[in-house]
Amino acid sequence: MSADSRRVRQTSARLRFWLPVPAAALAAAATFIVSGIIRGTYPFGPLPRNTNDLGQQFVPMHAYLRDLLTGQAPGDFVLNWSSGYGVPFFGDFMAYLGSSLSWIVLLFPRDKIDLALFAIATTAIAVAAAAMTGYLRLLRPSGPVWLAVVAGVSYATCGWAIDDAAYMTEWLNGLIAFPTICLLCEWIWRKRSVVAFVVSPLVITLLWTSHFYTVYMATIGAAIVVLARVLSDPAGGSFLRRIGGGIQCLIAVAVGIALAAPLLLPTYELVKTATPSPDETFKPLDWYDFLSRLLPGSEGVGSSPGLAIGTVMLLFALSFPFNRAVPRWERLVWTAFVGLTLWSMQLPFPHEVWHGFDSPNGSPFRQAFVIAGMLVVVGWMSAAAGVRNFLAVVVPLLLVGGLFYQVQDLPTLTPTTRQVVPVVAGVALLAFLLTRWRPGMFAWVRRAAAMLLIGAVLVEATLSTAAIDEARAKFMHEYDPWGAKQDRIAALMETARDWPNIRVSPSQYTTVNDPMLMGGQGAEYYTSTIQDTLSKALIELGFGYSSYGRAPIDPKNPVVDSVFAVGARVQEKPPGMFELVRREVGPLVTLRPGTPWVSTDPGAFGVQEAALGADVYTVPETELESGKGATAARRNGAFSMRPLAEGATVDLKLTTTCAPGTDVYLWGPEFVGGALISGDGWRQILKPGVKRPGIYTGAPMTWVGKTQTNGSVTVELRVSGPTRIPERAIGCLDNNRLKAAVDQLRQNKPASVDVGGHDVTADFEPGTARTLVISTINTAGWECSVDGGAATAPGTLSGMISVPVDANARSVACTYVPRGLSDGLLIAAAALGLLVASAGLLLIGRALARWRRRRRTAA
């Protein structure tokens, strides 16, 4: 045989070996797509699929990413000028956008951003199936090819992937990372080549910048798998050789993580200073509730682990401890490791370790995909060895049947679960019986059995995906995809685009991240990495908040708009019709007196006035008139009120006097109840139950009407439970004074202002000592220099950036520098040097070994 023929045959063999990888990817993607067709969800029907965070975080942020990549966004990858009046972006990029699949947004028009997210999720599921199939083929090359495809699909469509991660798109990167890291370590383990050692850290870096949170969990899971391989691999050579392979894998992973440090460290700094959620105490589940999630089609997002990997792979996994075709020591090690890892999900300390010592608010079993992956791995190892002995067949059927019987009445089971488990288990038993024919006899029967199992797995995965999606949609909020409403708002926003001269706000008519979704530069912003200083500063200015302070609620207040240069805003009036409201506002950068004026008015009224630099509110003493059926008391600077009868609704009144013709605003951040809004009827300020322990929801300052011609003010309130409101909860805004204050700000703007992606430079004429103020909340990372001097952290005026300048100063330059970036770059440089040096040493060692072999041969 010629050399060319051998190469052709080798290439053909490699292609056949890896053919199951794309097959698994296509099959997994097909099940996800067909499940959407069955359900009739977007883009295949009228039902929305933008569940919770998918609609309110991932879709808007991917729209903003598309704007960044196409040069349409006002900020850059360091700072986001669109949200929260200017916020750090590294944390959001790492938490929501870092996936290597996010570039897919460029393939879709902006008004099809929802379709782009569907494509990203489908692709991620396909890649996860491919990665798992590739790892399994490398782990046990002798296993049935068709079963490797089935195993890959079962992993990629596991309960966690569909129930927890499909609407948290970035979480799917953890699903990809677990088998990928296992595959890289297996590559290093088997080949011990320089290429494997160099390429693996680069792939690890890509994974860790995709979604560090779930990839961290995937890395722990891969470490457990590698340790099991080191302790039990019968074909891995001596124990020292196995240890050496494990150490090489550990080094590759550590170097890969270190190379990601320029993104990881700034993100860590942002997470440390983010608005915290209330402390959570982990509570283990009842074991029946816990284990019920092993069954396909079961649903329990946010409360129980999505462990399901399909009935067939579950049966194979349960056969592993009893399969005598697998070496006994290997069975013992892997069974112990899988069992202990499963048990760790129910223990407080391992729970903390899995979640980076920050117990999450909701979804306490976010690491479930690792357990699902390990079950698929042991199931494949058992199937590849051949399931023949009696116990390996009967015990799994009994265990699954017993679990199915015991959990029949639990709410985690869907009707689909109750139908598919017995049917697919029966099909699996039938397929096993058919394969009892001797090899070579009735080969078509064996092929028919394989096709029967493949069909059962794909149908079960599709129906389970549809059932989980349907069950989840019954209690989770869903956002409509981009439609006519978004088209109208986006068109209005485009007509007013004038950044950085003014900000244009889309308000909040679609999501809590509308500025990223619709464009503009509004205050709305919701993320897990929102800085605590930003949340607190906005709340002090009269903003409301939800999600424990992580989502500011814009009060749409003219004073706030004037301070933060919001010169145009979208307004809905009447319902369903939108218009753009413009107003004269202060500029983005202003020069104030050397000692800025400070208001003496209480609460948010005074903070707003100090930010504006003028007295525009009258905040009078108020009286509370309580009718029959309610109690009211004045204590600690607030009115405490409650109905006498449990569940009753009582109307009360706040009364005072202001100048005639002024606008009346109500400020009651903790007021649970309603207020009568002039011309608009009753409006709920805060709903009952929102003030749970910890910071949950606060009300924004609200316009309630105008003073009467005689100056009297009456604000009608309605309460149905215990609540409180400040004694001086009413502020009367004089619009003439506000106009004069805005004119003063406009007169005192710098001669020129240049706003870059994450910096602001202002030039002005020298004169007297002054304070330069940038209408952006001062979060840690901002540094300012005067006339090119040393950069220092700026001061704060009502939460905004302020820089004192002397009479001779001519310019101020402020730049946002992510904390931890310089340290991250140093760590990455050191890791890169270590990688290059290690690769060089390996190459030299290999060259020396070849030279010695040639000398021995020559001798």
TrEMBL record:
The keyword Secreted does not apply. PANTHER family: INTEGRAL MEMBRANE PROTEIN, INTEGRAL MEMBRANE PROTEIN-RELATED. Keywords: Membrane, Transmembrane, Transmembrane helix. The keyword Transmembrane applies. This is Putative membrane protein YfhO. The chain crosses the membrane at residues 21-42, 89-108, 115-138, 144-162, 171-190, 210-231, 243-265, 301-320, 332-349, 364-383, 390-407, 419-437, 449-468, 825-849. Pfam families: YfhO. InterPro entries: Uncharacterised_YfhO (IPR018580).
